[in-house]
């Protein structure tokens, strides 16, 4: 039986402690155990990511990348590294953290396992240099591939949720802001934008943090109006920019490719420019006059009809839309709408959310999505 450490040896009735390894061999065994544990950790994390790519996203390309990475890591998992395993003697099996005991959403599961894989590959990169001259370099390249996979997967996940979102709640300042948003989330809402033009940055930051946590708890996207810095600070899913805000290309440089960027548009020229600049979605309006866009004339339903026939990205009709006129907007061609007052001022936001979503889901399949 293979010895992994000190053991008892009896000599003339006297028990002495004997180590079967030299100092060099002891260090080698420790390195082998570290490599074995982290090879397991990386493969396990990748398998969790692969299952979501396969069954959750139905994305063969990303699922295959996870599988390829698993197989490349497995190629380094030699018999001698496995033989060094000492599960019973591993103090790490008793260590845990409260955050490991629960996951609030699919996103939390994915992020936790991306971190797990990346950390394991970093360990393998460093200790692997003591095992094989090529192991460190191989694990370094795999770690970069995992970073790219994370960017692609999280961006894809966000965009897929955007496509599935037909009701977009844009907030306005209110004392019951959090309660109203949560009530709407309970009604099935999956897309929220935090908009507050006048509050102090300290308050906006605190509100954004709480709203972001709330939205992610319910599996919804959280967007910040205008402020790229706030979006980065709270790890929001993206920003929504007006015509006078920074260029989309600049926002993309700051936010990276995995976050969403929306742009408000009021006419066909603005729409086509926003699409050409790389907006992930656009706002179309204001359809009706609204105090939210004070001083801007309503564009009416004609622009909604234009968007139906000409927009190549998801678009949301916005401006004065509520339970009394949503069907007129739908009949004009909209299958996504954004609302402000109809939820912020609703006595029962959950029920209003459910009603608006039910109307949007009755759209005929012939209308482009």
UniProtKB/TrEMBL annotation:
- Please list the reactions this protein catalyses: 4-methyl-5-(2-phosphooxyethyl)-thiazole + 4-amino-2-methyl-5-(diphosphooxymethyl)pyrimidine + H(+) = thiamine phosphate + diphosphate; 2-(2-carboxy-4-methylthiazol-5-yl)ethyl phosphate + 4-amino-2-methyl-5-(diphosphooxymethyl)pyrimidine + 2 H(+) = thiamine phosphate + CO2 + diphosphate; 2-[(2R,5Z)-2-carboxy-4-methylthiazol-5(2H)-ylidene]ethyl phosphate + 4-amino-2-methyl-5-(diphosphooxymethyl)pyrimidine + 2 H(+) = thiamine phosphate + CO2 + diphosphate
Q: Which InterPro entries match?
A: Aldolase_TIM (IPR013785), ThiamineP_synth_sf (IPR036206), ThiamineP_synth_TenI (IPR022998), ThiD2 (IPR041397), TMP_synthase (IPR034291), TMP_synthase_cyanobac_bac (IPR016229)
- State the Pfam families in the record: ThiD2, TMP-TENI
**ThiD2 domain spans which residues?**
33-151
Cofactor: binding details:
Binds 1 Mg(2+) ion per subunit.
Q: Which domain of life is it from?
A: Bacteria
Output a single Gene Ontology CC term carried by this record. cytoplasm
Q: Where is this region: Thiamine-phosphate synthase?
A: 146-369
Amino acids binding 4-amino-2-methyl-5-(diphosphooxymethyl)pyrimidine = 193-197, 225, 264, 293
EC number(s) of the enzyme? 2.5.1.3
Which residues of the sequence carry a binding annotation for 2-[(2R,5Z)-2-carboxy-4-methylthiazol-5(2H)-ylidene]ethyl phosphate?
290-292, 320
One GO process term, biological-process aspect: thiamine biosynthetic process
Pathway the protein takes part in: Cofactor biosynthesis; thiamine diphosphate biosynthesis; thiamine phosphate from 4-amino-2-methyl-5-diphosphomethylpyrimidine and 4-methyl-5-(2-phosphoethyl)-thiazole: step 1/1
Thiamine phosphate synthase/TenI domain ranges (all copies): 167-342
Mind listing the UniProt keywords for this protein, alphabetically?
A: Magnesium, Metal-binding, Thiamine biosynthesis, Transferase
Query: Which one of the record's GO molecular function terms can you name?
Result: magnesium ion binding
Segments of this protein annotated with the region Unknown: 1-145
Q: Where does Mg(2+) bind?
A: 226, 245
EC class name: transferase
**Which cofactors does this protein require?**
Mg(2+)
The record, for Gene3D superfamilies, names:
Aldolase class I
State what this protein does: Condenses 4-methyl-5-(beta-hydroxyethyl)thiazole monophosphate (THZ-P) and 2-methyl-4-amino-5-hydroxymethyl pyrimidine pyrophosphate (HMP-PP) to form thiamine monophosphate (TMP).
Q: Which PANTHER family match?
A: THIAMINE-PHOSPHATE PYROPHOSPHORYLASE (PTHR20857), THIAMINE-PHOSPHATE SYNTHASE (PTHR20857:SF15)
Q: What does the sequence similarity comment in the record state about its family?
A: Belongs to the thiamine-phosphate synthase family.
Q: What is this protein called?
A: Thiamine-phosphate synthase
Q: Which organism is it from?
A: Brunnivagina elsteri CCALA 953
